Amino acid sequence: MSWASPAWTRSWSSGVIVGLATLGPIGRKLPAPGTWGSLVGTLFFALAVAPLSLGGNLIVSLVLAALAVGICGEAEIRLGKQDPGEVILDEFIAMPLCFLGWPALLAVMPAWAALGAGFALFRFFDIIKPLGIKRLQHLPGGWGVVVDDVVAALVACATLHGGVWLWMLTR
């Protein structure tokens, strides 16, 4: 597998690249842009991905992650920064992965609680970056921007389901 940055975004205008990578003004104008990107990603999940099956969520997430690697890597070049804070497409695309197994979560808690818990756990793991997640940022180009968020989302998902499992044991 090659870790080279995809070339397909090189011909896109800087306005399009930076606009997509920052989710328009959200990443450039609001404080705590990663939190806002995660919140928009949670809303995207709730409105567009939650009705899909587990396989549908995985397909959407895989396609979005592949696009984000190219876009975020090119945004790094255009902005002249490594993993710029205003680039929040990575948080946005990772959020649906926090909610893999959505029906199992809804079996034991209301949707608002599952969404809130998934959001909070993702932000925790994205900010703290334990369990080797921090090392993933050192992957080249867009890979380093995106993969650490994908793994943080998967750890958040496992933690969320682990918490549900523990809660069910105590009932």
Mean pLDDT: 93
Figure out the total of helices. 9
Structural class: mainly alpha
Report the β-strand fraction as a percent range.
under 5%
Assembly type of the chains comes to single chain
Largest β sheet strand count, sense and barrel closure: none
| N-to-C span | 46 Å
Q: Spans of 5+ residues with little confidence (pLDDT < 50)? A: none
The gross shape turns out to be: elongated
Count up the domains.
Answer: 1
Tell me roughly what share of residues is in helical segments.
Answer: over 70%
Order of helices and strands: HHHHHHHHH
Descriptive overview:
This protein has about 170 residues and is mainly α. The protein has one domain (about 15-170). The chain is built from nine helices and no strands. Helix 4 runs antiparallel to helix 5 (about 90-100) and helix 7 (about 110-130) crosses helix 9 (about 140-170). It is elongated, with a radius of gyration of 16 Å. It starts with 13 loop residues before the first helix and ends with a helix. The model has no long low-confidence stretch (mean pLDDT about 95).
